[in-house]
Structures are given as structure tokens and as C-alpha cells.
Amino acid sequence: MGQPGLNRRQLLGAAGGLAVAGAFGFAALGTGADALASTARTRVRYWNLFSGGDGSNMIAMLDAFRASHPGIAVKDATLQWGSPYYTKLAMAAAGNRAPDLGVMHMGRVAGFSPGRLLDPWDVGLLAKYGVREADYNPRLWQRGVIDGKLYALPLDIHVQLCFYRRDVLKKAGLLGDDGRMIPVTSTTEWFDVLKKAKAAQKKGLQTIGLWTNDQNFQWWFFVAFYTQLGGQWFNDARTEVLFDTGKATQVLEFFRQHVTDGYVIPGAPTGEQFINGAPFTWEGNWSVPVFSAAKLDYGATPLPPVFGRQATHAESHSFVLPHQAGRGGATNEAAHQLAAYVVRHALQWAAGGHIPAYTPTLSTAAYKKLQPQNEYVSAMDHQATEPKVWFAGSTGILAQDLGPMVVSSTMGSAKPASVARKMKNQLVKLLAGKNPMDGKTAAQGGAAA
Q1: DSSP tally for the chain: helices H, then strands E
Q2: What's the pTM value of the predicted model, to 2 decimals?
Q3: Which of 88, 111, 148, 419 is the most buried (most CB within 10 A)?
Q4: Any bridge partners for residue 231, and if so which?
């Protein structure tokens, strides 16, 4: 395949992360640029959206692959995270200029017109390089299956967690004999825990960080607790909205109580407050390297099952094959080989807080020693995910439309019951809307979803 018509740019450093430059918004990472001058027999073009610590860990895995597979040159490019990445990937696939391998959030796969903008994986080739369906959590593997074909190969699951400081919880009598936070199984127990923690914490800090004015986090938290209540979204045919406004109101009232009872300081920097001594914060697992670098004595558990059922919000970074009219041959096999290698050598990836999707990694002695990763690995078995429809997924329309509604309830500018009704009305509109990728509604694409 020819080289993509995109120029690699120098990485621009920025405090706390990476800034990408240029009209195409991506930077050269690792030694991918060397692939252009390589004498390797096969070259694989690989696009991803990993920056910061994730970017560094991905580079390390790619460099390890290069060292052990000198016959395959990997030209990797990191594009701007979020909607810009997906727009560029879709345009490249539609124009037959797609890379050989890409990364995608699992929740976006159903809306990416599988079969037109994505090519299916050859499970036989994956098995040849050591990756099989039996190596995965069954539900996670099936999330990548559309019309009986595998379109997304999971690399991880990344989850929302309840981070807690052991020093404060010990003072408050909230640690068990194992040094971990005591179990919580109801909203009453949870607010009792917060009350005790507040009495033991430093003055001037919030008790828990909830990202109260962030639409993405508030939406992720809502998905988790709505799932704990057994809430449904749509019927199997994607023709009817089954959203339960009563259960939604329960969740929204639960969020709001954190503010009205004084456990949250709206707008306060959640991570910084936790580092400075706040007892709790709800954050994504990608905060593990940050808190570990700060030398905190902390733990992390899946979001508390306050409604009686364990469920914590989860997404998954997955490998995909962007559509190529002439896909096949040595380059396609090398793309399968590269993806399988990274999946099977994801201990490095786990250092960033993510739970490796390849389950044999979870049983290794090295993974079991990782802290606090070994405390929340059970989240693999109770994932709360967005519905499998074209408008869902990370930075997708569902989060953009409903996330601000959740924020309005949590912050007190709208009543929970009223917000729940608005959420249902918006779901009705979205269900009737057409996917811009293929012009089909969720129901018309029901077989694919």
C-alpha cells in the first residue's frame, strides 16, 4: 500500500500532557519515522490516539516489537484524541487512504459502518499469532463482533474507579483488616462513609471529587449507576426506548446529594484535592500513574455498588482494520501480527492503569503484584457500557447530548425528575436519527448493532 498523504510533525511538549500541531493534528512518536528508510520487507502504517503516559507505554511496546521483528517496519502516527481522530480515520477509510492498523474506542465501532469503513479481522491469522476468543472475557469479545464478524480486537478495558486515601480512611475507621476500604452496598452506607471521612479529613478540602461540571465524567458515572439499577436503554430491535425515568431520577438524586450535603466543592480540581488530602475521588484508571508518582498511600476500587449490583463504567481501546480496497497480503498479515503482539505483551500497558483485555496477563505473577491494579481487576467482570448503537461511544453524540443534562441536575440548575424526562425524549430523537456514516437509523442497522 502507498504511504498516507500526511506529514509527521515534531512533538510539542506541554505541561501535564502533549500538544499536537499542524493541520492534521498529529505528531511523530517513537521511531516510526525510521520506517520510511527501513530495509524491512514489510511496512505497517499504524494510527493511534495515545498521548502522555499512554503514548510512552505504547512507544515502548512498539519498539519492543520492532526489536524482535526486524522484518516488519512500523510507521506509527499519533493523532489528536477525540472527534478529530475519528473524523480523520473515517475520511482516510472512505478515500482508500487508510492506515493498515488503527485504534478505536469499542463504543464507537457500531457507528463506524463496519464492512464499509472497517474491515473484519481474520481470526485465523490472530490465532496463528497467539490470540484467540478463549483468551478474552466473553462479553468484551462480543462487543467487537458485528454481523458475526470480529471488527474490534480489544487491548484493554479502562474503568471509572473510586480512589481513596488510606491515611484518612484509617483515621476514620473505614479500612478493613486487609487495609482496603470497607465494602459499601447501599446509598445509606455510602453517605455514612462520607460523613465519617469528612470528620477525619483536613479542613478546607472536599470529601470527594465527582467532576460535577464535566459532561463526560458525569455521563460515565450515570451509565455505571443506571446499570447498577438494571436500567435498560432500548429493545433488542432498536425500535423502542426502554429508558426508565424513575431509575434515572434515583441516580440523579444520588449525584445531587453529594453537593447538597456538602461533600463536593463544585469546580474544585479533583485530582489535586486528592493529592492534597481529600479522602476520595472518582476518576478514570489512567490517574493511577499520577497518584503513584505523588507517593500517596492510596487504593482504588470499582465504583461502589450503592444500588446493590456491581457495575462500573468501562470502555475499551481496541485495534481495528480501517477499510482498504486492496487489503490483504504480507502487510495485512503484519498488521495482525503487530496487534496480536501488543495485546499479548500488555503488562507495560497495565502500568498506565488499564486492565489488559488478554486474560492470561491477569493471572501472571507480575500483574498480581501491581498496586492498586490488583484491587480493581474484578471490574472486568461487571462492566457498565453504553448501548451498542451508532451514536454511542467515547466522545460520541450520546455523551455530548445527555452529559450536559446530567451536569445540570448535579449542579442544581434543573430538577432530577425533569432531567430524566428530557434524557428520555432525547433518546427517542437519537433512535430515530440517521448515522451520517451510512444513512441508517439504529433500527435499520439493527443487524449490524
Answers
A1: 17, 18
A2: 0.89
A3: 111
A4: none
